[in-house]
Amino acid sequence: MIVFKDVTKTFLTKKKAIDDVNFTVENGEFIFLVGPSGAGKTTILRLIFRELLPTSGSIFVGNIEVNKIKKRQIPALRRKIGYIFQDFKILHDRTVAENVAIALEILGLKKEEIESRVAEVLATIGLKEKDDYFPSQLSLGELQRVAIGRAVVGNTDIILADEPTGNLDPKTAWDILKLLVKINREGKTIIMATHNLDIVESLKKPILFLENGKITKSKGKLY
Fold it and tell me: What is d(CA 100, CA 121) in angstroms, rounded to the nearest whole number?
C-alpha cells in the first residue's frame, strides 16, 4: 500500500510542486496520474522513490514512512520499486539482455540466476529473440520494453512509470499499455504518470487528475 498524507513539496523557487496531496493506492492496484507538464506527476513518483523529500506531510510504502528513513535504508526501499523513466535511461554500450541484467547485478545475484531471470523477463516483454541486440538496433517501442524489463526483473512489488508512452506512436503506445496491464495482473502495483487521456480512458482504472500541484478530481477509490 502507498499512502500520501497532507504531502506538500516546495522547491527553492518557492513554487509548490505538489500541494496538500492525499491518496491511497492498495496493493496490486493500477492507477493513473493525469495532468499537463508541471502538474506534479513526476514529483509524486520521485517522492515515492525517495529521490525527493516532502516539505511537509507523510509518505508510506507499506509500513515504511519513506520521508523518515535513513540514507542507508534507501537501497532496501528501492529494491521494492521499479522505475520506468521517461527518457528510458538505457546504456547504449550494452545489449538488451545486459541492460535488463543490471538490476540483478547490483543485487549481487549469481550468474546462473541472473541469466534465468533475464530470459524469463525477455519472454514476457517480447524481446527474447533480440537479447543480443544493442539499443541502436531497436525501435522506440522496443527501447521502452527494455526499460520495463529492467524495472520488473528484480521481482519488485511496485512499478512507477513516468510517461512510458509519451514518445510513441498510438499503436506502440497501446502495446506498451497492454504489457503494463499484463504485469499488473501478476500482482504488481503500478502508478503511471501520463498526459494522454485517450490511453487513460481506454482502461477502467483509478485516476488522479492534477493541476498546479493539486488534485483537482479523481476517479476510483483513492482516499
Answer: 8
Q: How far is CA 68 from CA 20, 40, 121, in A?
A: 18, 21, 33
> What global pTM score does this model have?
0.92
Q: Which residues contact 114 (CB under 8 A, 6 or more apart)?
A: 101, 104, 105
Per residue in 161-187, pLDDT (tens digit) is 999 998 888 899 999 999 999 999 999
What gap in Å lies between CA 26 and CA 162, rounded to an integer? Answer: 19
Secondary structure class of 44 (helix, strand, coil): helix
Q: Report CA dihedral (76, 78, 81, 86) to the nearest 10 degrees.
A: -170
| Of residues 136, 121, 119, the one with CA closest to residue 182 | 121
Strands 30-34, 207-211: pairing kind: parallel
Domains observed in the chain: 1-80+195-223 (3.40.50.300)
Letter string b/e over residues 96-112, b meaning 16 or more CB atoms within 10 A of that residue's CB: bbebbbbbbeeeebeee
